[in-house]
Amino acid sequence: MPKLNKVRYTIKARTISTFVLLSGLLAILFVAVVLLAPPDRVLAQQSAQASAQAQVMTVASARDIRGPSPYIAIENEPAPKLIVDPPLPEGLVQGVYWAQYRVENLRIVPVFGASAVQVSPRAGHLHVIVDDLPWWWADASDNNTVDIANLPPGQHKVRIELVDPNHNIFPGQVVTQTFTIPGYESAHLH
């Protein structure tokens, strides 16, 4: 029996030694993680700085999007510019021309006449002509999309002009788009 007790004692001693060794390693690892990890306040500050930088990089100001305030006259205003996207295919299949647009250095507003030409920031509106017809209409709504419905199947042309309050075209600010309305059987959804 004494030999069996000696074996048990040896196994028990090795188990305890292994346990003590592993416990020590775990304690050292825990201390290292605690000492090497940055404090929560540093992490929170870094997170707030990153968030603020991301917001500054992605959020444009109202002036960036809408242009200058209408309360202050602009000296040496840059020339106005008209940008028109291609017509939306979702409309064409319904016989509808939808083309989104935007303007730069001009406000589209329903003001007309000689006095309105003198305002700053500059004001104007659109003229829309379909298929070279002898008439046009003025669009002073600034709703961002020209909308022409019930076009028959076939090829069409839309001319969009950016004009001043006296209906004079700003030089170079005309966009003409040629497009095809496919044959369609369904009722118009517009």
Task: Provide tags for this entry.
single chain; about 190 residues; alpha+beta; five-stranded mixed β-sheet; three-stranded antiparallel β-sheet; 5 helices; about 35% helix; about 25% strand
Would you write up a description of this structure?
35% of the residues lie in helices and 27% in strands. The protein is built from five helices and eight strands, in the order αααβαββαβββββ. Strands 3, 4, 5, 7 and 8 form a five-stranded mixed sheet that branches. Strands 1-2-6 form a three-stranded antiparallel sheet. The N and C termini lie far apart (100 Å).
In round numbers, the mean pLDDT is: 82
Rg: 36 Å
Ranges where pLDDT stays below 50 over 5 or more residues in a row are none
First and last CA, distance? 100 Å
Question: Which band does the percent of strand residues land in?
Answer: 25-35%
- Rough outline: elongated
Number of DSSP strands?
A: 8
What is the oligomer described by this structure? single chain
Major sheet description: 5 strands, mixed
Q: What class do helices, strands and sheet pairing give? A: alpha+beta
